[in-house]
Amino acid sequence: MSTKPVLVPASETAISRRGFFMKLGILFNGLAAAVVAVPIVGFLFSAITRGRANGYLSWVQLGKVADFPEGETRLATFRNPYVMPTDGKTADTACWVRHIAGEQFQVFAINCAHLGCPVRWFQQSGLFMCPCHGGAYYSDGSRASGPPERGLFEYPYKIENGLVTIQAGELPTPGAAMAALTGEKPTCA
Amino acid sequence: MRMMITRIGQWFDFRLQLAAPVREMAEHPVPRNTASWWYVFGSAALVVFILQLVTGILLALVYVPSGAEAWSSLQALNHAVTLGWFVRAMHGWGSNFMVAIVLIHMVQVFLFGAYKFPRELTWTIGVFLLLMTLGMAFSGQVLRFDQDAYWGLGIGASIASRVPILGPAIVRLMLGGPIIAGATLSRFFTLHVFVIPGLLIGCVCLHVLMVLKLGINEWPMPGRIVKRATYMSDYHELTKKNGAPFVPYAIWKDMFFAAFIILAVAACALYFGPFGPTGRPDPTIIQTAPKPDYFFLWLYALLSLLPPSLETPALLIGPVVVIAGLLLLPFLSGEGEKSWKRRPIAVLTVMMIAITLGTFTHLAGYTPWSPHMSAWSGDPVPEQFIHGTTALERQGALIFQVKQCRNCHSLGETGGQRGPSLDSVAVRLTQDQLIRQVIQGGGNMPAYGKNLSPAETTALVAFLETLHPKGQTPAHDAARDVALGDEKPVVQP
Fold first, then answer.
1. How confident is the model at residue B133 (pLDDT cuts 50, 70, 90)?
2. Residue B271: enclosing H or E segment and its boundaries?
3. Three-class secondary structure of residue B132 per DSSP
4. What is the DSSP secondary-structure string of B179-225?
5. What distance in Å separates the CA atoms of residue A84 and residue B67, rounded to the nearest whole number?
6. Which end of chain B is more exposed for a tag (fewer CB within 10 A), N or C?
7. In this predicted structure, what is the pLDDT of residue A77?
8. What is the DSSP letter of B97?
9. Which of B71, B172, B439 would you mutate first to test chain A, the one with the most A CBs within 10 A?
10. A94 at the B interface (CB within 8 A)?
11. Across-strand partners of A77?
12. Which residues lie closer than 8 Å to A75 by C-beta, 6 or more apart?
């Protein structure tokens, strides 16, 4: 009877050479993934991070004060300050300029404070009306009726060298930074 | 010749090893009563999906996903490229058909209890397939980069912005920047052409694989209860002992229906043509009343009709509850009756949802909640309301038009429907009430106090007081008559 060497199964906790290299391989791949993930995530979220310090906002000119007769509300358009080459006409934006008196203005975003549809000004009844879900606002932008929970969004403005200038650059939405920026709170119904 | 083909076939199969599994798949036995016209919707959805892939790739040959050029490239497809209009129409109608067929398939699966053990995961993946189909529908509407797409994105952004804390960040991520522009279109193009179709193809493969592995759901019989312990052997009995091979026993109905659907899509495309594009996506053109495509019309109606205070919670919590409910369904009722004849709540739920969605969609077809922007200048006051009026009342009718009252109130069936019809308003409101309502507004009507001079208000109310049917006396305040000492005899109609 010859004694055969008994094959002792490697204990489950013992690490074989190949097992070690496989684990090292996984670790190495994880490291590579983490290194590549940083720029990928940075790229994916660049649209958010850029705007963090209001990087999208700047002052844009709407026109001469004289272009906006006192006591009237007129449509003005401007080119968004932050533009990409493929934007085309979509970077153009409209807004309503209400010249109250002297250097007193109100510049309203075109977007309804409900869901962003373009509101239209009706001089005769002194109302802004929205064609989508039926929101209506008074001439000073405050909510008149319908589903909006607040008044129209207002751009901060200043008069510089006889030009009406507004701080713009971001689509105003009910929850967006815009409202916080202008210090507006939802008007009480 | 035949020998030659056989040998070539054998050469390939020796290397591919596919013939045996494909034959096994085709000839797998199915319960005899599943060879029914009720079982054709799943395969029809798959066929329409393949049609969408083909027509989508064809469109991508010409379409330019650039904010500046997308609209023009769609015009080129419609007018300059041979049969471009037809491929666009096929893709557009294909999407409508796909949403509809997927929904019908889901209802059928639900009513036939097919989501119960052991097909829970098939249902779960099906729910994701439905969500992805809707995602394709919405992103496809964005790629048709016109006014509706532009303002539709604005609505999407406004909804997303209401998410607490993260709202503004989600909006920027969705738009790819601060505004709806070129970057927005590019990312919806990526979603519509790469991300969602990739996920869809993967999930469709899993979905179909599971149907093949677990077997098609047997025709539900009242009283045949699903039990985890016995179901597999019962099903084995139905298929192995009494079943019939899927090909050709059941498949011919799928094939007939698929061909019918493809022809129906082509017929709609031929007859109705492509969808849009509507106006150029230029945000400075504000004379537009954007509307979503038909499968989101119910949502459009819901957003108009919900009370403002309920809107944000409903928008943010509603979808979570609905999706969670759909995903949990097979885990909450994985056993028991399959037949719709013994599941009245299931049938009522489907009916209620269908009626609700149908009603909302119908309402969104004529948007009674929106002011008619051109009613004041376009719809004249019907003649019968002016006939025999005094100068003051006629002046009031003029003010009624000029102050855009018509945009929200109808007279003689024309005008807006936002507010009540005023054909018989004088019967409902006294003179004082009319004045108060006009000046102070209320009940969803803006106040006109600042915009009407006293003379205008007097004339307007004088006109409104004439609006009552013949033979019906206008409302009047008896106490006021007494107080002012000009008591009138009450007219008996």
1. very high
2. helix B251-272
3. helix
4. SSSHHHHHHHHHIIIIIHHHHHHHHHHHHHHHHHHH-PPPPP-TT--
5. 10
6. N
7. 94
8. H
9. B172
10. yes
11. A94
12. A94, A95, A96, A97, A121, B286
Residue that the structure tokens 């720029």 belong to: A39
**Burial of B136 (C-beta count, 10 Å sphere; 0-12/13-18/19+):** buried
Of B178, B290, B451, the CB nearest to A132: B290
Q: What are phi and psi of B285, to 5 degrees?
A: -90, 105
pTM over 0.90: no
d(CA B383, CA B47): 57
Task: Report how far apart, in Å, the C-alpha atoms of B470 and of each of A14, B180, B478 are.
Answer: 101, 54, 21
Q: Are B86 and B58 in contact (CB under 8 A)?
A: no
CA distances from residue B145 to A47, A80, A93, A144, B182 in whole angstroms, order as listed: 21, 19, 17, 32, 10
pLDDT digits (tens, 9 = 90+) for A131-174: 888 889 999 999 988 888 889 999 999 999 999 999 999 999 88
CA distance A184 to chain B (A): 16
Task: Report yes or no: B91 and B84 within 8 Å, Cβ to Cβ.
Answer: no
State the first-to-last Cα distance of chain A, in angstroms, to the nearest integer: 101
Of the candidates B430, B435, B380, the residue with the CA atom closest to the CA atom of residue B410? B380
Residue whose structure tokens are 């026993």: B249
The DSSP element (H or E) to which B30 belongs, if any, is strand B29-30
In chain B, which residue's Cα lies nearest the Cα of A169?
B178
Q: Which residues of B, range 355-394, sit inside 8 Å of A by Cβ?
A: 369-371, 373, 376
User: Could you tell me how far CA B142 lies from the centroid of its own chain?
Assistant: 15
pLDDT at B493 over 80: no
Residues B261, B48: contact at Cβ < 8 Å?
yes
Three-class secondary structure of residue B289 per DSSP? coil
Q: Give the best residue of B170, B179, B300 to mutate against chain A (max A CB count within 10 A).
A: B179
Report chain A's mean pLDDT, rounded to a whole number.
85
A124 — contact with chain B (CB < 8 Å)?
A: yes
ipTM of the complex: 0.85
Give me the pLDDT at residue B63, please: 97
**Three-state secondary structure readout of chain A:** CCCCCCCCCCCCCCCCHHHHHHHHHHHHHHHHHHHHHHHHHHHHCHHHHHHHHCCCCEEEEEEEHHHCCCCCEEEEEEECCCCCCCCHHHHEEEEEEEEEECCEEEEEECECCCCCCECEEECCCCEEECCCCCCEEECCCCEEECCCCCCCCEECEEEECCEEEEEECCCCCCCCHHHHHCCCCCCCC
pLDDT at B237: 87
Among A32, A94, A35, A33, smallest CA distance to A62 is for A94
Helices B19-26, B2-16: axis angle to 10 degrees equals 100
Q: Could you count the other beta carbons within 10 Å of the beta carbon of residue B387?
A: 8
Sign, CA torsion B439/B440/B443/B446: positive
* Residue B129: how many other CB atoms lie within 10 Å: 21
Question: Can you read off the two tokens belonging to residue B136?
Answer: 């394709």
Residue of A nearest to B301 (CA): A133
**Distance between CA A50 and CA A46 in Å, rounded?**
6
- Strands, DSSP E only, in B215-342? 244-245
